[in-house]
Design a protein that fits this description.
Elements: H1 5-10, E1 20-23, E2 29-31, H2 32-48, E3 56-59, H3 65-76, E4 80-83, H4 90-100, E5 104-106, H5 109-116, E6 133-138, E7 148-152, H6 153-166, E8 175-177, H7 184-197, E9 201-203, H8 209-215, E10 221-224, H9 226-234, E11 248-251, H10 258-268, E12 273-278, E13 282-286, E14 300-301, E15 306-309, E16 315-320, E17 327-328, H11 332-337, E18 345-353, E19 359-364, E20 369-371, E21 374-376, H12 378-387, E22 391-401, E23 405-414, H13 418-428, E24 437-441, H14 454-460
Parallel strand pairs: 1-9, 3-4, 3-5, 8-9, 8-10, 10-11, 11-12, 23-24
Antiparallel strand pairs: 1-2, 6-7, 7-17, 12-13, 13-14, 15-16, 16-18, 18-19, 20-21, 22-23
The structure holds adenosine monophosphate (AMP).
Length: about 475
């Protein structure tokens, strides 16, 4: 056996080829046998089209079982899987294609798989070493050029096995899969846990609260971004009853508000398990399955992950471990800048650790506001604002200020009056931390993974003090 990730995954597929892998909305299912067969034929077709081990295969397509077959086929062929967000414009896509130089670009995996059905299956996965590349994931790139995080077969295998154990997955589980599959969350975190258990997935093309509520009674585990949970809570049809069959709700990719955690527990009795990860390392920390899931904390590093906070009590988080990527595709200088001499990756997330090792994230280093020479951690201000009556959620940014360099600006969802919010914040926060301007909005800009796009807010409110 080689270290090809596909060998590990397919080795756990159920013996019965009819055992369901994808349970579709119309009630039909696609079995694990069909998944493996589709992947093996697509791998053979890729080879026939000239894809060689190490070549990149780009997939830019809607979520479908055939997209998953194309992913597994790429692993089998020993090639490197490069998923692209379907929302990318033509100009953006061109950049990625020029950067990745793929041997094959798939935009219609359904057609590709139909063609592959006429091709004999690849007999066995191409042998790979643990440090051979399996995938390149382009980071969302809110500043500067988007970078391709290089993940190896060994990186992905180590993380999948650690998560499978940490979250207690078994063949009795049914995973509700409503995430996109161009991002590590839906592609690796969710699917690998199901594959390693040979467990079925209730397969939804996208998150839609009514469809999820309908599907929940058939599932045991759901993985989501925080907005999935707030949208479920906003639907009165989401009840304790709907969630009663569930074993576990997991959240990540963006911070879960403590109020969402509390409301979810009050409604369903379930304490959402929050974990923290990124494209460059897949999952880094998780709250425990057994033991205390503390709202606002992202839990403990996974076994094998070393995590430290640079410089003082609160600082930039650095990590080292088996799932940490080897660098950015064709960016050796950028890669060198983001690793320490002793091999830790500088995540760019600011956080702290309790004496017992529990980790708390307070935001991205680049979102830090420096006002009058003082550091303001947006999360600290957001937590105070979120507690005020009438405020549902807030995002704190810095805007250019004639006296202070940057001034603290709060963009909030809710009802209220600017002066009153500022006055209430001043009761709890030092003057330099309290917002100097407050803007009320109906919605915060978010990307598909539910992350608030602070770069857009900074642009939008750049004139707040002029
Ligand atoms: P991406 O590479 O697109 O998955 O983005 C990774 C970033 O998402 C991390 O560096 C964090 O800033 C953020 N993130 C992921 N999970 C969490 C979490 N549970 N709490 C706070 N931030 C998170």
């Amino acid at each position: 056996m080689s270290d090809n990730l596909y060998e590990l995954l397919s080795g756990r597929f159920p013996a019965d080829p009819q055992a369901p892998c994808f349970i579709l909305r119309d009630g039909t299912s696609i079995g694990y046998g069909a998944l493996a067969d589709g992947a093996a034929r697509a791998a053979a077709l890729m080879a026939r089209r000239g894809v060689k081990p190490g070549d990149r295969v780009v997939l830019k397509a809607e979520k479908s079982p055939q997209s998953v077959m194309a992913y597994l086929a790429t692993l089998m062929a020993g090639a490197v899987f490069v998923p692209l967000n379907t929302a990318y414009t033509a100009a953006e896509t061109e950049y990625f294609l020029a950067d990745a130089e793929p041997a094959l670009v798939l935009t219609d995996p359904v057609v590709f798989l139909a063609e592959a059905a006429g091709v004999g299956p690849l007999a066995a996965p191409v042998p790979r070493a643990a440090d051979d590349l399996a995938s390149i994931i382009y980071t969302s790139g809110t500043t500067g050029r988007s970078k391709g995080a290089m993940l190896s077969h060994g990186n992905l295998a180590a993380n999948a096995l650690a998560l499978h154990a940490a979250w207690g997955f078994s063949s009795d589980d049914v995973l509700l899969h409503a995430l996109p599959i161009f991002h590590v969350h839906g592609l690796f975190v969710a699917m690998h846990c199901a594959f390693l258990s040979g467990a079925p997935m209730v397969w939804l093309d996208k998150f839609e609260d009514a469809a999820v509520i309908e599907a929940l009674p058939r599932a045991t585990v759901m993985m989501g971004v925080p907005t999935f949970y707030t949208r479920l809570l906003a639907n009165p049809a989401f009840t304790r009853e709907t969630a009663s069959h569930m074993r576990l709700f997991i959240s990540g990719s963006a911070p879960l508000l403590e109020s969402t955690f509390a409301e979810f527990e009050a409604r369903t009795g379930h304490r959402i398990l929050e974990r923290y990860g990124m494209s460059e390392a897949v999952i880094i920390t998780t709250n425990p399955l057994e033991g205390e899931r503390v709202p606002g904390s992202v839990g403990f590093p996974l076994p094998g992950v070393e995590l430290r906070v640079a410089g003082g009590e609160t600082g930039v988080i650095q990590i080292r471990g088996p799932s940490v990527f080897s660098g950015y595709w064709r960016m050796p200088e950028k890669t060198a800048e983001e690793f320490t001499k002793d091999g830790f990756f500088i995540t760019g997330d600011v956080g702290r650790r309790d004496p017992d090792g529990r980790v708390w994230i307070s935001g991205r280093a680049k979102d830090l506001v420096i006002s009058g020479g003082f550091n303001v951690y947006p999360k600290e201000v957001e937590m105070v604002l979120d507690e005020l009556p009438g405020i549902v959620e807030s995002a704190v940014i810095g805007a250019p200020h004639p006296d202070f360099g940057e001034g603290v600006v709060a963009v909030v969802i809710g009802q209220g009056e600017e002066g009153a919010v500022i006055a209430s914040a001043r009761e709890k926060l030092a003057a330099f931390k309290a917002p100097k301007r407050v803007f009320f909005v109906d919605e915060l800009p978010r990307n598909t993974m539910g992350k608030v796009q602070k770069n857009l807010l900074r642009e939008r409110y750049a004139d707040a003090f002029s």
